[in-house]
Automatic annotation (TrEMBL):
Protein name stated in the entry: Peptidase C45 hydrolase domain-containing protein
Gene3D superfamilies: 1.10.10.2120, Penicillin V Acylase, Chain A (3.60.60.10)
Peptidase C45 hydrolase domain residues: 226-405
Classification via InterPro entries: C45_proenzyme-like (IPR047794), Peptidase_C45 (IPR047801), Peptidase_C45_hydrolase (IPR005079)
A family per Pfam: AAT
Domain of life: Eukaryota
């Protein structure tokens, strides 16, 4: 037996004639344990050589600690176990989980592709920005429309023709109140080869659903000092849209440059701009909806075009407020506010004594909703948990420059307590496909004029299957 203590399990598929060190044949980690599927052979290998050009976290490597190595013996030897960044499993567990190799390769390849969203740099007039968006993300936009057509049918018993009819009500308001963004949507539709009402429906999907489904999310802002804040969020939604995410920058004359993570075809979402204004979103499942007001994704874009939190508030008020109940956590270097928005009235949450605001998927103070509201499952538990974890970090003396993206990802946003409805949301296979949610990405924005930027991780942070850190600006 060879001397090396750390052995790499090499997975080899004769049927596919794949290389034993191919990153496509590495495992996926899920729900606290690891499975390796396929016929394996053990080979000594140095980790760096086995995974050329890739980091451990990119592909969740499998490290086998030989039972013959006494210093690695444990009472649970032979059982699969997961430790934070490294999936550790014995050959016995591997041998017991043999399945179809083609299925693993296809699934893993899909995960790797979905964890590397395209990056778009858009610039020009509203129509030019929309055209490029539509052309580059044409395939993703078509997939998005298929996803939401199915979701509306299953969750709201609404045909796509009915969705388009409701989108027409919003179209007239958008054209009148936000002509530049309407022109951008027209460009997206033209570039993608779709009708304008299809693109309007994507941008109004939260409102058209009337609360039939809502994105889960956990968001946090934290004051570093008087002139800098950190804004962060896990975005939880159906895995069916994961492959349709994109990192987008938008450069327009006379406005701050925008960097955001968005769904293909949607003009505004989660991100920041060069003025230091950042936005996070928590969907709220509550009535009513008023189509004469602004869809939430349009409101997010208007915030991202603003020079400050105060400027954003003025823009939202001047256009009559939002069409549906939502929460926008908005920050600039000097101010953070939790905007609990409803078409019936708004409430603004301020920082606690530690400079922190946390939010999930229910209103904390806003009562301007039709009763009784139906909050997202587990929202209250996630709110309690994110507050608990943030308080623990405060008690440890974490402040100022110690509030970093890796700290928040590892210390808060990878948390699995109360799974599947945890901060790092786990897909619940018992639920219908259209309403299963999981954390699709984590973003941490540093709204500091001296070091402005963001880190994005696509996938579930801390799972071992998430992407490498993606930085904005790129």
């Amino acid at each position: 037996m060879r001397e090396a203590k750390n052995r790499m399990v090499q997975v080899q598929y004769d049927a596919m004639q794949c290389s034993a060190d191919s990153c496509l044949l590495r495992t996926l980690c899920f729900s606290g344990y690891t499975k390796y599927i396929g016929r394996y052979q053990r080979e000594d290998a140095q980790l760096a050589k086995s995974l050329p050009g890739a980091s451990v976290k990119q592909i969740s490597y499998l490290l086998w600690r030989s039972p013959q190595d006494s210093e690695h013996r444990r009472e649970d030897e032979g059982k699969p176990r997961l430790d934070k960044a490294t999936a550790v499993v014995s050959p016995i567990a591997l041998h017991q989980s043999l399945k179809d190799p083609l299925q693993l390769c296809e699934t893993t390849a899909m995960k790797l592709e979905h964890n590397n969203p395209p990056k778009l740099a858009l610039k020009g007039t509203p129509r030019e920005i929309g055209l490029e968006h539509g052309r580059v993300l044409r395939e993703q936009i078509h997939r998005q429309l298929e996803v939401y057509e199915e979701m509306f049918e299953v969750t709201a018993n609404m045909s796509w023709e009915k969705v388009r009819t409701l989108a027409e009500e919003f179209r007239a308001s958008l054209e009148q109140k936000t002509p530049d963004l309407y022109a951008e949507m027209q460009g997206i539709a033209e570039g993608a080869g779709r009708d304008i009402l299809d693109v309007v429906a994507l941008n109004c999907r939260s409102e058209i659903s009337f609360g039939s489904f809502s994105d889960g999310c956990t968001s946090l802002s934290w004051k570093k000092n008087a002139g800098a804040r950190v804004l962060a969020q896990n975005w939880d939604w159906t895995n069916m849209v994961k492959a349709n995410l994109a990192l987008v920058s938008i450069e327009q004359a006379g406005k701050p440059k925008i960097y955001m993570v968005t769904e293909a075809g949607i003009v505004g979402k989660i991100g920041f701009n060069t003025a230091g204004v950042g936005t996070c979103l928590n969907a709220i499942k509550a009535h009513p909806c008023i189509s004469a007001k602004m869809p939430i994704h349009v409101a997010l874009r208007l915030c991202l075009e603003s020079s400050s939190v105060a400027d954003a508030l003025q823009r939202l008020a001047s256009l009559g407020g939002v069409a549906s109940s939502q929460h926008i956590l908005i920050s600039d270097p000097k101010t953070s506010l939790g905007l609990e928005l409803s078409p019936l009235g708004d409430v603004h949450l301020t920082e606690d004594p530690n400079g922190i605001i946390t939010h999930t998927n229910h209103f904390i103070e806003n009562r301007f909703v039709e009763v009784p509201p139906s909050w997202a499952p587990g929202s209250d538990k996630r709110l309690d948990r994110v507050r608990e974890l943030a308080h623990d970090l405060v008690e440890l003396g974490i402040r100022d420059e110690a509030i970093t993206a890796p700290l928040l990802r590892d210390g808060i946003f990878s948390d699995l307590k109360n799974a599947p409805q945890s901060i790092c949301c786990q897909e619940d296979p018992s639920r219908p496909r259209t309403v299963r949610t999981a954390t699709l990405f984590n973003i941490v924005m540093n709204l500091d004029p001296q070091n402005l930027g963001a880190e994005v991780v696509v996938g579930q942070p801390g799972s071992g299957t998430e992407s490498a850190v993606l930085k904005m600006p790129w």
